[in-house]
């Protein structure tokens, strides 16, 4: 998997005693070159990817890169788990790895794109994996409320999901404009269709310390250490979620607090260097 990944997955892997191996990345995401090298040196059985609006870096992988990953995975007989959690926020959808490579299982959830309380997940799998997945789910004894499933089916069948997603896209678009204006002098990565911002902190500003400072001011951010897989050196970055605040005013206040904390640190460092 990527050297930076969704923090919840790290916890789940640890509970299941699954060893996570970070694979080098570039500006597009996971590198086919490094994946090939790792496969030759490690007993890799599968890879996990968020190709669309990656959490936390916000990157989206090109179709060409997906094809390259598919070729390497087939070469080494790898199972690909493709997480499309944010995919439907994008206006221009690239082919999924599931459509490109027949060794891919595509997973998704409605909790991010429709409603946080709608805890229904989906799995799209090639036929060759179907029985194993069914057996695993049966043995886990995981059940979703029938009411939630019925609600989701109704939302999909009546095309209501399109209205909800379009409304959420508009909210994200407006909030991202606010963030762009306030963070214009900051070093940020973001996807205009997504609700996440990956903000690089100034040199010598520990991201964990910054998270604590923000929390003391009533602002929740997540430091890069939460997302690091393996022994990679910690990046001095934080992840922001622009849809977490209840309204735009709360978002503005939170972003201004972040900017003020960064500027205060820069001024302090500048004074120390002069002395």
Automatic annotation (TrEMBL):
Pfam families: Aminotran_1_2. Residues 2-257 form the Aminotransferase class I/classII large domain. One of its GO terms (molecular function) is pyridoxal phosphate binding. SUPFAM superfamilies: PLP-dependent transferases. This is Aminotransferase class I/classII large domain-containing protein. It comes from bioreactor metagenome.
């Amino acid at each position: 998997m990527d050297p930076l990944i969704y923090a919840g997955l790290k916890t789940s892997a640890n509970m299941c005693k699954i060893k996570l191996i970070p694979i080098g990345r570039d500006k597009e995401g996971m590198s086919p070159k490094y994946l090939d090298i790792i496969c030759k040196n490690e007993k890799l059985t599968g890879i996990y990817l968020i190709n669309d609006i990656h959490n936390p870096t916000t990157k989206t992988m090109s179709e060409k890169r997906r094809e390259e990953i598919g070729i390497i995975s087939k070469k080494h007989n790898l199972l690909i788990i493709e997480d499309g959690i944010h995919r439907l926020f994008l206006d221009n959808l690239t082919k999924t790895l599931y459509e490109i490579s027949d060794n891919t299982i595509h997973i998704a959830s409605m909790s991010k794109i429709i409603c946080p309380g709608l805890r229904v997940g989906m799995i799209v799998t090639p036929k060759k994996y179907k029985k194993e997945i069914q057996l695993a789910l049966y043995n886990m004894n995981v059940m979703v409320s029938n009411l939630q499933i019925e609600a989701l089916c109704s939302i999909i069948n009546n095309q209501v999901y399109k209205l909800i997603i379009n409304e959420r896209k508009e909210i994200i678009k407006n909030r991202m404009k606010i963030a762009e204006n306030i963070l214009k002098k900051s070093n940020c990565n973001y996807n205009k269709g997504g609700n996440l911002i990956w903000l690089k902190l100034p040199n010598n500003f520990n991201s964990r310390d910054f998270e604590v400072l923000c929390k003391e001011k009533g602002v929740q951010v997540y430091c890069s250490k939460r997302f690091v897989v393996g022994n990679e050196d910690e990046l001095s970055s934080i992840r922001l979620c622009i849809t977490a605040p209840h309204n735009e005013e709360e978002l503005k206040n939170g972003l201004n607090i972040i900017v003020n904390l960064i500027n205060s640190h820069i001024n302090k460092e500048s004074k120390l260097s002069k002395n």
